[in-house]
Amino acid sequence: MHTIERKSTTKAWAGAIAEPAKEFPSTQLPIISGKIPDGLRGTLYRNGPARLKRGGDGVGHWFDGDGAILGVHFTDAGVTGVYRYVQTVEYQAETKADRFLYGVYGMHTPGPIWKRWGQKIKNAANTSVLALPDKLLALWEATNPYALDLETLETKGLDDLGALDNNLPYSAHYKRDPDTGEIFNFGISIGSSVQLNLYKSDATGKIIQKAAFKLDRYSIMHDFVLTQRYLVFFMPPIQMKMLSAMLGLTTFSESLLWEPQLGTQVLIFDRENLSLVSRNETDPWFNWHFGNGYEDEDGSVILDMVRYSDFQQTNEYLREFATGETHTLPKGRLWQVRLNPQTAKVTATQEVINRRCEFPVVQRSQVGQPWRYTYVSLMPQGTDTGEESFSVIARFDYKTETLTEADLGENRYPSEPIHAQDTQNPEQGWVLTVVYDGNSDSSEVWVFDSDRLDAEPVCKLGLPSVIPHSFHGTWNPA
């Protein structure tokens, strides 16, 4: 009998998650090349799963890793960086025990099945960040966020924003109105029924209005769109094997079933009173992330998102990612959608970027407004396997319908591109990304001119330790 050896497909990107991340205190960052722009003043924050192993065991899914925050402060005196794990109660308990103690999205609570019944899940605090005037929130999906110090990233503790009673979930994808400062967010809670909870906060983050809408099933809604008058949600055709998950027979991830015959639900809410405006169905698709949305002159809502033909492929790729070897090919593409908000009927769809991409971002001042540029992370041209990670950042120009790419070179992997507006010249913008260099097993911060993404970075800064691939970040202007 012959044993067929499978060739290892471990790629350079896997070096970033090979070991748990190492924290570092506030440290002056060396300039590797270029010059820090005079008008780039503020802080880049990033959040992501930084520990994927503990006590010899690996997590079950990339979503399960413990969150750690990177803060990069751009000041007149130079640039400093700080990197710290979010000190959740569960993180501290597992650190003390040196083993996993809790279930999360893709892993069970260790031990016999009966121990899983009703067991609390770990707050991974690993998905995104919200910078408020007096604190930074580490966000994820399922419960309250954790508050941290804006400068030192010291963990202060769970934060209910004044109204998240009974540990209501507060999603990672808030939307902040650039004119009013209002912050909108949501969370999906599972109890006797499945509820979509809507939140409106003032500029300090304090929740000033709440509403709850009963859903007919559980589905993943990871993000939404804010426009001038509406909150727009798409509910993908997913069913959850609720009993199986509750009894611990399957992980949360395994209990999610793709049911395309259900179609995608469109839910539109009034942003003033958080009431339902319209509800409809459209073709089945899945999306994690939206770029932006606004209302056209004729009243239509126009939005863009990274759209997948199904859920299972992208979920499996993200599970594999945590192991350092991926084989599944998720085919996310950037699409633009037009819909009628009064009927929630989708009237037009168009594929915008016919390349594997993710993490669509617009500049902060254009959230919910007409916009020209969407920034994305891209796979290189011609990449048709599931073994690589994003190695290109790009800008799509809706006016000229052109894509400008920043190719970072072989074995270099950027994070989601974040736009930062210049403090001295409102016409000038910068794009910041954290780059893992698989050639030297190191991490750097690269700064690009937003209008010259295909040119050399204007500045590269060194980081004291490797920053694992992260999910989301924000730019907090000075």
Question: What can you see in these coordinates?
Answer:
There is one protein chain. By secondary structure, the chain is mostly beta strands. The protein has one domain (12-477): YVTN repeat-like/Quinoprotein amine dehydrogenase (Methylamine Dehydrogenase, Chain H). It is built from 3 helices and 35 strands. Strands 2, 30, 31, 32, 33 and 34 form a 6-stranded antiparallel sheet that branches. Strands 1-7-6-3-35 form a 5-stranded antiparallel sheet, with no helix packed on it. Strand 32 and strand 33 form a beta hairpin. The longest helix is centred in the middle third of the chain and has 10 residues, at 312-321. The protein is globular. Mean pLDDT is 94; it is low at 1-8.
CATH architecture: 7 Propeller
In angstroms, what is the radius of gyration? 21 Å
The CATH class is identified as Mainly Beta
Shape: globular
CATH superfamily: YVTN repeat-like/Quinoprotein amine dehydrogenase
CATH topology: Methylamine Dehydrogenase, Chain H
Question: Strand tally, please?
Answer: 35
What is the strand and helix layout of this fold?
Blueprint (H helix, E strand, L loop, with lengths): L23 E5 L2 E4 L7 E10 L1 E2 L2 E2 L7 E10 L2 E8 L3 H9 L30 E5 L2 E5 L6 E3 L6 E4 L16 E2 L6 E8 L3 E8 L5 E9 L9 E2 L3 E6 L2 E3 L1 H5 L9 E3 L5 E7 L5 E7 L3 E10 L5 E8 L3 H10 L11 E8 L4 E9 L3 E5 L11 E6 L13 E6 L4 E6 L4 E3 L3 E4 L7 E9 L4 E8 L9 E4 L9 E6 L1
Antiparallel strand pairs: 1-7, 2-34, 3-6, 3-35, 4-5, 6-7, 8-9, 9-10, 10-11, 12-13, 13-14, 14-15, 16-17, 17-20, 18-19, 20-21, 22-23, 23-24, 24-25, 26-27, 27-28, 28-29, 30-32, 31-32, 32-33, 33-34
